[in-house]
Design goal:
Structural class: alpha/beta
Helix content: 40-55%
Number of helices: 8
Strand order of the largest sheet: 3-4-5
Shape: globular
Order of helices and strands: HEEHEHEHHEHHH
Strand content: 5-15%
Radius of gyration: 16 Å
Length: 214
């Protein structure tokens, strides 16, 4: 998961032989959820590419509803379990005030989607370190962990740098696969177990708050 242009599709392409559409700019190249198999030894996992937030062709609410629908379907399945979520954050965005506000907004949405008990299966990965203009990357990274994602990290979320190589992508996947149990999200519990509508869930209330603040 992540904003448009964060490198989600590139991450998957580094790991698989699948033909994943990639746009070198900030135009959204993933318009709907895509599933890509990855074989590691005798184990096969499925990487899920999601549409990016902050795109121009669809609202964040539409994208989130599609993601939630997918998460509900796998929660109801007896054969598929969610191992973890990778959230990609472009490191250069942290130097732009407008993008910093977006970072906080999506942080709130992601935490509400997961719930505190699931954050140990969340990976926060900074990306685009190889892009020109990232000289202040380390300073921005410290600000991100301390001011934006501090609570999630204290709850067990892992932090990684993704340098756009297969090796760094595999490190992240290996970490997720090493975790015990599957990832059960707050939104899954609320909408499936408790039969709440989206507007009555924690993330639904968070979305309304974000809309009022924008």
């Amino acid at each position: 998961m992540g904003a448009t242009g964060a490198g989600k599709s590139s991450f998957i392409q580094r790991l698989t032989d699948c033909d994943v559409k990639i746009d070198p700019g900030l135009s959204p190249c993933t318009s709907e959820i895509g599933l890509y198999p990855l074989t590691l030894g005798n184990q096969t996992v499925t990487l899920v590419d999601t549409p990016g937030f902050d795109g121009t062709d669809r609202s964040d609410l539409e994208i989130l509803q599609e993601i939630i629908h997918f998460l509900r379907s796998i929660y109801s399945s007896k054969f598929v379990k969610l191992a973890g979520i990778i959230y990609l954050q472009r490191i250069m965005d942290l130097g732009m005030p407008s993008m910093q506000r977006s970072t906080v907004r999506y942080k709130n949405i992601l935490e509400a989607l997961c719930g505190k008990s699931a954050l140990s299966h969340l990976v926060l990965a900074t990306a685009m370190w190889d892009v020109k203009g990232c000289g202040l990357g380390e300073k921005r990274e410290k600000f991100l962990w301390k001011c934006s994602w501090g609570a999630a990290i204290k709850s067990g979320a892992a932090i990684y740098r993704h340098d756009n190589t297969k090796r760094s992508a595999l490190r992240i996947i290996d970490h997720i696969l090493s975790l015990q149990g599957s990832m059960v999200l707050e939104i899954q519990r609320e909408m499936i177990d408790q039969r709440k509508t989206l507007v009555k869930t924690f993330i639904g209330r968070q979305l309304l708050k974000n809309l009022l603040e924008r």
